[in-house]
Amino acid sequence: MILQKENMKRFCSADKITCYIITVLIIITIIGAVIIILNATPPPDPPAWRYECQQNRCVKMELNQSNIDTAISLPVCRLFCGENVPVWPKPTETIRLDPSTVRIKKSGINFRRPSTRSVDSLWSAIENRFTNQIEAKVAHTTGLKDEGKNLIIKFSVNESSNYNLESYTDERYKLSLSQTSNEAIAEIKAETIYGARHGLETLSQLIVYDDIRRELQVVAEGEISDSPVYKHRGLLLDTSRNYFSVESLKRLIDAMAIVKLNVFHWHITDSHSFPLVLKSHPDLTKYGAYTPKKVYTPESIRDLVQYARVRGVRVLPEFDAPAHVGEGWQKKDMTACFNKQPWQDYCVEPPCGQLDPTVDGLYDVLEDIYREMYDYFDSPDIFHMGGDEVSTGCWNSSERIQKWMLAKGWKLEEKDFIELWGYFQDNALERFDKVAGRKLPIIMWTSHLTEKPFVDKYLDKSRYIIQIWTTGADPKVQDLLELGYKLIVSNYDALYLDCGFGGWVNDGNNWCSPFIGWQKVYDNRPDKIAGQYPSQILGSEAALWAEQVDEYTLDSRFWPRASALAERLWSNPDTTWREAESRMLMHRERLVENGIGAEALQPEWCLQNENDCPIIKSGA
Ligand SMILES: *[C@@H]1O[C@H](CO)[C@@H](O)[C@H](O)[C@H]1NC(C)=O
Ligand SMILES: *[C@@H]1O[C@H](CO)[C@@H](O)[C@H](O)[C@H]1NC(C)=O
Ligand SMILES: *[C@@H]1O[C@H](CO)[C@@H](O)[C@H](O)[C@H]1NC(C)=O
């Protein structure tokens, strides 16, 4: 320091004029910099456009000085214009929604939660998620004037309700909006915390950013009473054909939470890879995972299950057997036809592989797998045992299996192989029941085994739920309904989101082309498929089989198409996709705002010019 002062003195005394010039230059530079910084963010110009509600649609109009005071921004116009509130999925009952908003302060959001200490961390996580969603509304805007009323969010739930998320969890809620002179008040009443969570999701969609005034606004007064039509509202993802990081799965669950889907059906293993880490059988992952890093550890599964719970999503594990097994089992000598060629003779896609039901030790291994899965997935109250696409040709290609069957006095006919399959299923179920210690509902895919005359011989309808993947019009669906089975609908012609890309075992298109648009997903009605047995349909799932997708294109395969399913299952509107279209476009923006790489459905012009894009049918 001293040295520096002396240097300065010496410098100034040596050449006073230079010294003063430099000092003045420095001062001018500082003042200049301050002026530039102060001027760097002048208030942005207001947008060029405002919207007016005319004949139930928001019409784009010029915004200028003469109308700026009364001008309405697009999201505010959409809140009140036309029949539908822009909430997705549409609530089952909107009792009242007064056409006015009140501005609220982002920094003034307060939660009043019930005093339930044991689940405080669950409440906090739910509240934080809401706060982040509000944060996301202003993240990409021209800035926020954080002024207005405080927003008070009051929750009430049934004190004696269950805090576990189960297949029969009550998801109803009632949301009431009101205001006092300095507060906007949102009251959310629900039976369970999960219903309350749904109410909060709806509330977040009734809060909009007004880009004319650069402020957050919430609907001032109103009441919504809401509950889902179907209990089972799911998405299936296959993490065996390709691997998905836990981070990308969390993003999937985030998006599910936005649209109140409640089941993440995790098809975790298949013949292609075995990413599930099991302490009892490390060889399955060692030889089965694509790389040592492309695995799901017990910790990461537990973490994901908890993450999903905060978002009202149950994780439904599937262990698909006896087919769809292969990689990972190399050291066990418990499979048949593994990677056998030409694969077309033994399975539906390479690599082939099926468990060999005749190996005694197999059922001990299955019991170990079930035990660990049951534990990692936090004692689920439903389990999926797969059971699809068993190939007789595969089993019949094994001399060991043939010998075992003949020794039992069986023949080698189709029905004998069905018998073998039934034998496998009984033994596997017995081991699962032992692990769970109770008789849980079991889901199985439609297959030969679920057809007449086998199905009621091998699958007890009080235990088994059948997940349909054939077309909705397949008469076998009616057979199952008549026999009294409960169904989950995943008809591939409307709900397989992997359809419609290029082929991967040949050129041309993949097996279930063409691509399924959101409109088809929206108009696929489980109640129509059910015919006279509507109460036997538990719900529906859209499936993404992962031959041609991994985490890098995950978002755009599911979204926003899965949102169409979500609304079909939540409120099952009597209307078609046409009535939902303009809301869907707004909803797609909401997904993007929340970090979901949802596909664009139309030019953004169509969003800004409501209903000017669809072809108007002549005479309509
Ligand atoms: C302001 O915009 C309105 C349409 O919204 C238009 O009729 C009016 O001529 C415009 N006024 C000016 C001064 O540009
Ligand atoms: C609260 O939950 C308990 C247990 O589920 C139930 O018996 C009771 O009827 C519920 N109370 C109300 C007011 O719904
Ligand atoms: C199984 O293979 C044997 C020959 O090894 C054949 O006779 C029999 O028809 C086959 N069974 C079926 C169902 O294809």
From TrEMBL:
<dbReference type="InterPro" id="IPR029019">
    <property type="entry name" value="HEX_eukaryotic_N"/>
</dbReference>
<dbReference type="GO" id="GO:0030203">
    <property type="term" value="P:glycosaminoglycan metabolic process"/>
</dbReference>
<keyword id="KW-1133">Transmembrane helix</keyword>
<keyword id="KW-0812">Transmembrane</keyword>
<dbReference type="InterPro" id="IPR017853">
    <property type="entry name" value="GH"/>
</dbReference>
<dbReference type="InterPro" id="IPR001763">
    <property type="entry name" value="Rhodanese-like_dom"/>
</dbReference>
<dbReference type="GO" id="GO:0005886">
    <property type="term" value="C:plasma membrane"/>
</dbReference>
<dbReference type="InterPro" id="IPR029018">
    <property type="entry name" value="Hex-like_dom2"/>
</dbReference>
<feature type="transmembrane region" description="Helical">
    <location>
        <begin position="20"/>
        <end position="38"/>
    </location>
</feature>
<keyword id="KW-0325">Glycoprotein</keyword>
<keyword id="KW-0732">Signal</keyword>
<keyword id="KW-0472">Membrane</keyword>
<comment type="similarity">
    <text>Belongs to the glycosyl hydrolase 20 family.</text>
</comment>
<keyword id="KW-0378">Hydrolase</keyword>
<dbReference type="Pfam" id="PF14845">
    <property type="entry name" value="Glycohydro_20b2"/>
</dbReference>
<dbReference type="InterPro" id="IPR025705">
    <property type="entry name" value="Beta_hexosaminidase_sua/sub"/>
</dbReference>
<dbReference type="Pfam" id="PF00728">
    <property type="entry name" value="Glyco_hydro_20"/>
</dbReference>
<protein>
    <recommendedName>
        <fullName>Beta-hexosaminidase</fullName>
        <ecNumber>3.2.1.52</ecNumber>
    </recommendedName>
</protein>
<dbReference type="GO" id="GO:0005975">
    <property type="term" value="P:carbohydrate metabolic process"/>
</dbReference>
<feature type="active site" description="Proton donor">
    <location>
        <position position="389"/>
    </location>
</feature>
<dbReference type="GO" id="GO:0016231">
    <property type="term" value="F:beta-N-acetylglucosaminidase activity"/>
</dbReference>
<keyword id="KW-0326">Glycosidase</keyword>
<dbReference type="InterPro" id="IPR015883">
    <property type="entry name" value="Glyco_hydro_20_cat"/>
</dbReference>
<feature type="domain" description="Rhodanese">
    <location>
        <begin position="480"/>
        <end position="513"/>
    </location>
</feature>
